[in-house]
């Protein structure tokens, strides 16, 4: 699939930092590919954090991406840091 702007929303904004939420059926390794968020380049800033739900259609995962580059319309985010990967019950 590809980035869908309707699935990116602001959770919080303060002091030039934005916390985003993004949901997608794409796997996290597709989302962290350079250029995935290019159409959102005018909104994303270095250091912004994207809380994400990925692979929602098959095997849902949750985690964080950090915007590490946004230059000349090219956006790159870090690899996803997974959240809640273990259930120790």
Radius of gyration: 13 Å
- Oligomeric state of shown chains: single chain
Q: How many helical elements?
A: 1
How does the major sheet shape up?
6 strands, mixed
N- to C-terminal distance: 35 Å
Low-confidence runs of at least 5 consecutive residues: none
Number of domains: 1
Please report which band the strand proportion falls in: under 5%, 5-15%, 15-25%, 25-35%, 35-45% or over 45%.
35-45%
Order of helices and strands: EEHEEEE
Helix content: under 10%
The mean pLDDT is: 95
Structural class: mainly beta
Total strands: the figure is: 6
What does this structure look like?
With 89 residues, the chain is mostly beta strands. It has one domain. The protein contains 1 helix and 6 strands; from the N terminus they run ββαββββ. Strands 1, 2, 3, 4, 5 and 6 form a 6-stranded mixed sheet that branches. A hairpin with a 6-residue loop joins strand 3 and strand 4. The longest helix is centred in the first third of the chain and has 4 residues. It is globular and about 45 Å long.
List the helices and strands and how they pair.
Elements: E1 8-14, E2 17-23, H1 28-31, E3 49-54, E4 61-71, E5 74-77, E6 81-82
Parallel strand pairs: 2-3
Antiparallel strand pairs: 1-2, 3-4, 4-5, 4-6
């Amino acid at each position: 699939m590809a980035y869908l702007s309707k699935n990116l929303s602001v959770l919080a904004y303060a002091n030039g930092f934005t916390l985003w939420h993004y949901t997608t059926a794409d796997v996290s390794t597709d989302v962290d590919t350079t250029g995935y968020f290019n159409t959102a380049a005018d909104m994303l800033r270095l250091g912004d954090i994207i809380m994400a739900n990925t692979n929602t259609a098959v095997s849902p995962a949750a985690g964080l991406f950090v915007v590490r580059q946004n230059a000349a319309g090219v956006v790159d985010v870090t690899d996803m840091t997974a959240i809640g990967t273990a259930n120790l019950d």
